[in-house]
User: What shape does this take?
Amino acid sequence: MKSLFCLYILMALLQAGAYPQKIEQDMGLPDAAPCFLRHENHLSPFTGQKLSSKNLRKARTDNESGDLVYRPSEILIDSSKRYTRTYDNKGNLLTETEENNQDGSLVRYFRRTFKYDSKGNLLMETRFIWSNSCWNYHSRVIYTYDINDNLRYENTEYFTDTAWVNNFRNIYDYDSNGRRLSSLYQRLEDGRWTDFTRISSTYSNNGSTIMQENFVDGAWVRIGRVTYSFDNAGNELSYLYERWGREAWVKTNSSAYTYDSRGNRISEIYEDWQDGILSRRDRITNTYDIKGSCTSTLNEAWQDSTFVKRWLTTRAYDEAGSLISVISQFPSGNSWENAFRITYTYDGNGNAVKGESFSWDEGEWEYSATPFSDYNFRYNWGKDQLDQLPVSGAVVKIRYDLLPEEDPYAIRDFTLSQNYPNPFNPSTAINYFIKSDGRVRLIVYDALGKVVTSVVDEYQTAGSYSVRFDGSRLPSGVYIYRLESGGYSTAKKFILLK
Assistant: This one.
């Protein structure tokens, strides 16, 4: 059966058009909200799931069953930064390596590795810094879950000299529906865990409230709270942010949303409170095509008792429903003048392989890295925040690989797979599995046994890996790649054919 592919591209700018806003506002939280509130999960009382705007697009490729088929293995940003990622066959992120430009060359800088249980729950994230020609431990986060797979504990440790040292700990509690009731943030001081922030959530039939308190001089002090309301479909209708005064809650910011019959958000009103008096601030109006894709966003500011046009963002899609361009304009007299543009290019499978960002300069489009916000591209190819990669650049290129068909969790020994494609030109993917933690070396030799390059030479945790070998600087011929880890060693041949 022919696979049907759906591509979604997530950008921080889409929720509010091109108007600059902080990424935290993707959650519907005001700038004035304390940082812990802005990063706390925003849950619907009906579904218990994190809400997301229907306007947003995510970069991933699914088949007709909704299974992830392709995954981005390399993200190149303006030839000055590169992210390389590997995954298991379930689409879980296993490794991410960041390289930065140094004197015209990309050099290793930062690396993360991830471990999961058989259900796909993240158990550990380990971070490394490249120094003295090797990866050095930096920090790690250990995750523990309850019997319902709710995240219960989140421990952050830093590596000091030769040992891991506790630093921060988060403790989460849930109700019987899996909705988070509280988040307790602690830090280690003089060998004891000390409370410093607490987030509490309450739920009703049509809303929820999230409150932040800080632990000061032995007592909990209220800081702020956010109250949400929802309709029967779980769509967010409003939020209200309040800060704690000396004896009562003081209203600070609020907003209200409306939707069409298909659940698309068509209007957003943002308001401020001053001395108990409500004043309008911004209005956003969205339009959609028959497929439910957002085609335009009008941003207006409240001035002199009326809304004044400020930004207009229009979007175009191809026949498959993939976003191909975003143009933002500002008013100039009775017309609109170009400001910024983003375009997307796709491969035959619907994967977004290129994004380009421009600004309008004296009648021409010029490449521009960050026209809208801190991140002008925000690709998302997975099911949660871990899979998101916000990036800034004038030109962002992405390469995709197919997920391996074999189940790495069923493998109980070291395995080196045949590269694909083979023959190849100029690059190919090499997959392998290691059953225990340790130093791993993947070396390429020529037909005479001379070392050509070291593809991998670092400490890795047990699991499945996929790396890409680039032979663009080598002549055609037969080469050998060898995997070594612990007492295990095996090799395979591959052919570079130019």
Notes: Confidence is low (pLDDT under 50) at residues 1-68, 371-376, 378-386.
